[in-house]
Amino acid sequence: MSSFLEVVDVHKYFPGVKANDGVNLDVRAGEVHAVLGENGAGKSTLMKLISGLYQPDAGEIRLEGRPVRFGSPRNAIRAGIGMVHQHFMLIPALTVADNIVLGDEPGGIRYKRRTAAAQVRALSQKYRLEVDPLARVEQLSVGLQQRVEILKVLYRRARLLILDEPTAVLTPQEAEELFQVLRHLKAQGTPVLFISHKLDEVRAVADRITVMRAGRTVATVPAADASPQELANLMVGREVVLRVNKPPRTPGDVVLSVRNLSVTDAERRLRVRDVSFEVRAGEILGIAGVDGNGQTELADAIAGLLPASGGQVAFLSQDITRLPPGERTRRGIAYVPQDRQRDGLVLDFTLVENAMLRDVSHPPFSRRGILQHRPARAYTERLLEAFDVRPRDPDRHAGDLSGGNQQKMILAREVSRDPSLLIAVQPTRGLDVGAIEGIHRQLLRLREAGKAILLVSLELDEILSLSDRIAVMHHGQVVDIVPAETATREQIGLLMTGTRVGESEVAQPSNR
Amino acid sequence: MSVLTNPQLWASTLAMTVPLALPAIGGTFSERAGVVNIAMEGIMLMGAFFGVAFSYWTGSAWLGLVFGVLMGGLLAAVFAWAAIRLAADQVVLGMAVNIFASGLTAFLLNTLFGYEGTPPDTPPLPFVSLPWLGPVFSHQSVLLYVMFAIVALSHWFLFHTRIGLRIRAVGENPLAADTAGLNVWRLRYAGVIVGGMLSALGGVYLSIGILNSFDVGMTNGRGFIALAAMIFGKWTPVGSFLASLLFGFSTALGIALQGQGVSPDLLSMIPYVLTILALTGLVGRSTPPAADGIPYTPIR
Amino acid sequence: ANKAGTTENAAGGAPKVNFKVGLVTDSGGLNDHGFNHLSDVGLEKAKQELGVSGSVVESKSESDYVPNLQRFAQQGYNLVIAVGYLMDEAVKQVAPQYPNTKFLIIDDPITDINNVTSAMFKTEQCGYLVGALAGLMEKRSDIQGLNPQNVLGVVGGQKIPPVDSYIAGFLQGVKKTDPDAQVIVKYVNSFNDQAGGSQVAQTEIAGGADIVFQVAGGSGIGVINAAKSAGVFAIGVDADQNYVAPNTVIVSALKGVDTATYDVIKDTLNNQFKPGVQDFDLANNGVGISKTTSVVPADIVNQVNDLANQIKNGSLTVSDQLPKS
Amino acid sequence: MTPVLATALAILIGAAIAYILGFDPFVAYGALLTGAFGNTMAISSTLAGAVPLALAGLGVSVAFRAGLFNIGAEGQYWIGVIAAVWFGYHLTGWPGWLHTLVCVVAAAVAGGLWGGLIPGLAKAYRGAHEVITTMMMSYIAIYFGQYLIAAGGPMHAPGYNAQSYPIRQDAWLTVLVPPQLTTAVFFALGTAVAVWWVMFHTTVGFRLRTVGANARAARYAGILVPAYTVLALGLSGLLAGLAGGVQVLALDHRLMWGFNTGYGYTAIVVALLARNHPFGVLLAAVFFSALSTGGQNMQMVSQLPSSLTDVLTGLIVFFVAAERMVPLAIAWYRRRRGVRVQVAAAGEGGREA
Ligand SMILES: Nc1ncnc2c1ncn2[C@@H]1O[C@H](COP(=O)(O)OP(=O)(O)OP(=O)(O)O)[C@@H](O)[C@H]1O
Ligand SMILES: Nc1ncnc2c1ncn2[C@@H]1O[C@H](COP(=O)(O)OP(=O)(O)OP(=O)(O)O)[C@@H](O)[C@H]1O
Ligand SMILES: [Mg+2]
Ligand SMILES: [Mg+2]
């Protein structure tokens, strides 16, 4: 097979960072090529170089043997390169169809809106990527937004498809659908380049795998030959423990009790319907579900960021349904929100200021309303140390940190508040295996310390390996709550689609 | 109420709407493209001054209009260059442009024409009389009708053309627009400069549309009211127009109600009070384009 | 190249004398189409005809008055002119410190400082005359361009005494000659909003006014413009404003700030400086009315002149207060 | 661009304009400089003019820090003047210092209510954009002031002029350096320190800054964003009101027509130029005041219209904002030179190409 795309010894530097420091890659016509690597290894940078968003400082990119130099994404698009970015490149205020056709709209001077919608509809039917062309993107779940991104690329008839961590936000079923599309494209001879942290799916879909570490490509191996352990070690450069072991534990008193809770979002749509459950001390309750089925709203409502439209939330036997978020924090609820950049951190603030964000009115951060800069700084230094946040400089702005380290910073802050309840929404989204390992260990340590944990995740494996019990949400309702030790991927996956297996089956898990 | 049935009230309303609606729509173009523009006042002054100056020098009000609009566009282009290319703080720049333009127009007026003001024989733009539309339209500047056309055209342009879609896209998320192959900078320049020309046209209206002279500070804060109208109108041309209309109406009402014993100072508050009431009572939240005011500097 | 500057030496003017005049405007500046501008005109005339040298500074805000006055005084200017009552406190503060410098303040009565003279203008008198003239015109049915309705208009800049004294005189004048006339009085509430002035005038014209008297500074240019395009008449203020629209402005009420300035410069130059309040009125030509255009019939001009004489000889007095509404 | 370089560039352009129009730029600029700082009187005036700019600028900056654009400082200033004057002539028989204090507090509170309570509540609970509400309130304040002192108005003092009764002399601020530098300068300095301390050393300031930096995160952090919106606009208005109160106690001692002199608008530029830092605000206020005072001296000496100083001011602010001009120009120069060197090399060796 001939090379469609070659990357030869490419370098890209940012101030103080060698993001790509000698990268070689070769994507052959009609293959699915995966790129693996830790957070910050330089994968996204490489893809942005190929798609014209960045230009290499040194090295060469060749397309079908000819060297190319893209001054802007416009040129790359013309050359047939389509990219789905890790952080979505969508315009929330516009419709799905607007987003998809943007830059190549039907019409002359006038924008033929209806034609665009029809074309998008046809396209989405062809690839079985169902989405309403007239919906506004801001109303879509993350999974649907992913579809829009892919349709955007397909609309332009890309000759090379690049996907940067496309499955991070998908359910197993959705991921499988995506892989079908990729196989379809491959069959038509369109090469696909895709990034993932998930070793299993990479092995299942890719023909070849390139591993990056610290800005360099360290190996390219045929997918069939690579074992997960081998790949993980290549990525991290050391031995990685892939399996967490969770010692059995008897849960204590009820910490959080949710009764018939209903929640409407800011647009007044009912997102959580009549949900009831309990979380006990020393227990992890996992909430599984396809993205957009009310999990985030549920977590927000418990944290007080969304008002309950019905029902009751009790924490440590006290009704907190009407309390403002600050008061809930004070009583011992910690919250790792889904969107770390928008909710969890103030990117323009230093790490010290971010550390004090939630507890500024208490020592060590302040006394009688007056900030205590030195103790706060010392406290933050300890935090960075204990949770291995890099760089370990409390005066750096949160915006300077990589996504993984931002997440660690939030977790560090929330965990060290010594809460009775931790709500964690997708705490490992987009993190590499090393970072995930660390965060899982932290969650289990909290469980060990007798805290109650509500874990919302789209990663079934994460839910299955960490939870004591699993609640599955569909369409705003809890379909079922099952004990984790007996649950299987298939069972949960089925519940996630809203299909309730016969009562008896769920009721007799001990058979297994 | 007889005040409300007096056609002059409505004629005044329309006449007072034009110099607000044009810059408000101008601001809308700029901000839809993602560049916060509080320089309408200054750009209007440029348009007003050069409108008169060129009308006098060339002897043609239409050439005055063209040059007034071009000079406003030129100032907007300099503003745009600093805001876009240099990623400078757009609010600071806007204030700078306002101060600069008010100084420059006063300075030029005094050095070129003297303290008496611009020559009285400067030709103005024509008034248009459409008596069959009623007395309200019996004596209005030709620019009133131009404004109606601009409201409709701007709406069509922003919401029904391909460039309009692209301009809105760069104002919402320039990075996404860039990855979709759009030229973010060029679109932003277009938005700011077209917007500047519309603001300048508002200035031209004041100086040679309904009058034929320029005076120091003759915009009298209308550029800032237009800013409010733009926000009030939720960053849409039609909304901007309606907000300007409300403002024009209440100003005209304030004039009409004078002379019945109430202090003219108190009556002058009407437009401002009404605006606050309308804003808190009916209109509520208005959200700017998501990337409004955020410079986009691609790393390449 | 320097039309505005005041430094030019008069080519054919009087020989230079060693006498320096400083002029401080209030925050209205030289473009105010009013007393600041007229004061400058008077200074220019003095430079031309008396050979004095002069310098102008435009104040930006109230904290500038004291330093601006003081600078002139410190630099040995012989006469410092403060335009406007806003400088009342500033003059009272600065003048006593510089007894060798003379001060003139326009439109503000300062009495007991012996190096300060105040120029006060009886603008109600000239307002009265143009009011009487307008009333007489309005009553006649033979004048081209006037409508049958017996309505007159007044556009004020802001409701402040220097404006209202003109208007008070105007109303009394109308009452005298055309008691049944309706006078619509409205204010622009700004002195530099030409567009606003034009709208207010149009509202009055729509209400039937066919002669509009403007007392609105820069906004008044808009008033005259509106009158012109509606084909009605206007009356100018402060200076002869016929040049703005020769066929529209039939007469102007004159406030002789220029002559007062010139006179005080001349007196001071000749060591005849008189401290205290000087009233400028019809009798001493401190206020007056301009030449009328040919639209105004000669007999009306004569009747107005009669009234002027009555005011001059004291048989007719005009109040500067608006009637209580 | 550093303010120094920006100023230099603006001055160069101004000199060119002056020269083209037949004025001597050296004379003009010499006068500008001596007018602002040349002697005690000049310095006294410059600093006195800086006080209201600094106080109102601090007000604007507090709102900016909380992510709010208070464009109505002018009206809040005006309301402060009104309140101070009202208490200034109504109260009798109070000790001087207490009378002053009452006037100052009244001005601040009035400004705070005007700028904070109404626009703040409208923003927090009705979502009304503060740019509109503060601006509208500003116009209302100005017309209200005019109404008060117009003939027949409630605060009109009998006599020819539209002005109020004067504040009783016991409440006036003491002159420190004649002609007009008063103890008002201590209000400006003290307030700057206080604002700095509150913004960077208290939990309230931290929360205000959090709301400004990321309102969503602020909510997550348990901050009642609506309350802090009201607080931020309130503080902002309070400081602008204080500016008015202090200024009228220092200088005019009464309400007069023509009082609205644009301090509130210049204050916006002051705050922006200072990047909302309290001590930067002090410097920027002195800078703008110096330009204005010096500009008038320039007109006096050279007869250049003082509007030229507005042109200069606009250019300076523009160049300060456009700080990237310098690196861009350097990069452009390097590239050009680089190209030329390459071409030269190619010409010599002929092999590089
Ligand atoms: N625009 C930028 N400016 C400065 N540094 C950057 C920029 N983009 C990326 N980097 C840095 O370059 C390095 C590589 O980043 P990149 O986004 O390519 O990593 P990645 O492999 O995609 O990581 P992840 O798996 O977390 O997405 C990181 O250290 C990152 O902090
Ligand atoms: N979440 C909040 N949102 C808005 N204002 C608050 C919030 N928390 C406190 N405040 C205000 O800030 C002031 C000082 O805050 P501080 O945190 O010291 O008080 P507190 O919240 O009662 O203390 P504690 O957190 O120990 O209960 C309080 O008087 C209160 O009015
Ligand atoms: Mg990445
Ligand atoms: Mg607290």
Automatic annotation (TrEMBL), chain A:
List, alphabetically, the PROSITE patterns matched: ABC_TRANSPORTER_1, ABC_TRANSPORTER_2
Judging by the UniProt lineage, the source's domain of life is Bacteria
Q: CDD domains attached here? A: ABC_Carb_Monos_I, ABC_Carb_Monos_II
Pfam families given in the database record: ABC_tran
Where this protein primarily resides, as one coarse class? membrane
Location(s) in or outside the cell: Cell membrane
Domain called ABC transporter: residue spans:
5-239, 256-500
State the protein's name: Simple sugar transport system ATP-binding protein
- Organism of origin: Alicyclobacillus macrosporangiidus
Q: What is the lineage of its organism?
A: Bacteria, Bacillati, Bacillota, Bacilli, Bacillales
Automatic annotation (TrEMBL), chain B:
Cite the PANTHER family for this sequence. Answer: GUANOSINE ABC TRANSPORTER PERMEASE PROTEIN NUPQ, SUGAR ABC TRANSPORTER INTEGRAL MEMBRANE PROTEIN-RELATED
What is the official name of this protein in its record?
Simple sugar transport system permease protein
Q: Which InterPro entries match?
A: ABC_transp_permease
Picking any one GO molecular function of the record gives:
transmembrane transporter activity
State whether keyword Endoplasmic reticulum applies.
Answer: no
Q: How does it sit in the membrane?
A: Multi-pass membrane protein
Source species, domain of life: Bacteria
Point out the signal peptide segment.
Answer: none
Q: From what organism does this protein derive?
A: Alicyclobacillus macrosporangiidus
Supply one GO CC term from the record: plasma membrane
The membrane spanning regions, by residue number, are 6-26, 38-57, 63-84, 91-115, 142-159, 189-211, 223-254, 266-284
What UniProt keywords are attached to this protein's entry? Cell membrane, Membrane, Sugar transport, Transmembrane, Transmembrane helix, Transport
Subcellular localization is given as:
Cell membrane
Automatic annotation (TrEMBL), chain D:
GO cellular component, alphabetical, reads: plasma membrane
Keywords from UniProt, A to Z, are: Cell membrane, Membrane, Sugar transport, Transmembrane, Transmembrane helix, Transport
A GO molecular function assigned to this protein is: transmembrane transporter activity
Leader sequence residues: none
TM stretches of this protein: 42-63, 75-91, 97-119, 131-151, 171-199, 220-243, 255-274, 281-299, 311-333
Principal location: membrane
Keyword Iron listed = no
What is the top-level taxon of the source organism? Answer: Bacteria
Q: How does it sit in the membrane?
A: Multi-pass membrane protein
* Any Pfam family hit: BPD_transp_2
Q: What is this protein called?
A: Simple sugar transport system permease protein
Per the UniProt record, the source organism is Alicyclobacillus macrosporangiidus
Q: Lineage of this protein's species?
A: Bacteria, Bacillati, Bacillota, Bacilli, Bacillales
